[in-house]
Q: What sequence folds into this?
């Protein structure tokens, strides 16, 4: 079993709370309140800024050129592709770049992103990669799963689903799995597994909390 499959099986409950969250089901059937999606988009923009920093840290923590290049390519993809796309999606939902810049990071965003950065700062590239893996691999599973169920043509969240179900993002996630499994083959020891599992479980819980914060935020409006 690959390292990713093993982590996912051992974190089955937390993984399910993330990929099968009420927010995700609402995206799939189009019933998600639009205020929740807007709140999510603003926080996700701030999230991506911190994730770019985490990939910068992965460049620093890498001890081979191929790992440095892989992390640098992801850093570039976040800063120059995904964030641009994000600004355009936000504009479609009535959110201007100025709204994004002015927004305060919510607790769920601070907790998740700083947890990942801390895992990477005190650990090595394997710790950091495990802490990052629910993000990139999870969104590919969510987008692919929703698309496979079939998305109504008038579902307002269809472009979001298609983005994460699309070949470009699925490729990014597939290479993240290959990297994780290779780092595991190089560095995993039985003693380390417990700590890696803890990182994976916590990151999955914090992803679920990120969805939940957007639902709570919209409900409080
Ligand atoms: C919170 C979160 N997790 C994962 C991704 C995937 O990039 C994202 N954009 N936002």
A:
């Amino acid at each position: 079993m690959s390292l990713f499959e093993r982590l996912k099986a051992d974190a089955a409950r937390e993984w399910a709370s993330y990929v099968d969250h009420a927010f995700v089901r609402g995206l799939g059937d189009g019933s998600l309140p639009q205020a929740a999606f807007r709140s999510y988009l603003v926080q996700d923009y701030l999230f991506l800024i911190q994730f770019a920093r985490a990939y910068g840290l992965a460049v620093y923590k890498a001890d081979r050129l191929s790992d440095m290049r892989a992390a640098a390519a992801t850093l570039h993809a976040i800063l120059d592709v995904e964030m641009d796309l994000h600004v355009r999606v936000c504009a479609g939902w009535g959110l201007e770049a100025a709204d994004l810049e002015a927004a305060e990071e919510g607790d769920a965003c601070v907790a998740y992103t700083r947890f990942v950065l801390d895992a990477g700062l005190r650990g090595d590239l394997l710790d950091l990669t495990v802490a990052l893996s629910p993000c990139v691999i999870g969104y590919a599973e969510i987008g692919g799963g929703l698309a496979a169920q079939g998305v109504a043509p008038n579902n307002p969240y269809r472009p979001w689903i298609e983005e994460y179900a699309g070949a470009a993002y699925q490729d990014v996630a597939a290479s993240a799995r290959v990297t994780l499994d290779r780092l595991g083959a190089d560095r995993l020891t039985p003693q380390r597994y417990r700590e890696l599992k803890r990182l994976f479980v916590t990151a999955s819980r914090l992803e679920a909390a990120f969805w939940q914060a957007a639902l709570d935020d919209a409900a409080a409006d």
The chain has one domain: 3-220. The first helix runs from residue 3 to 10.
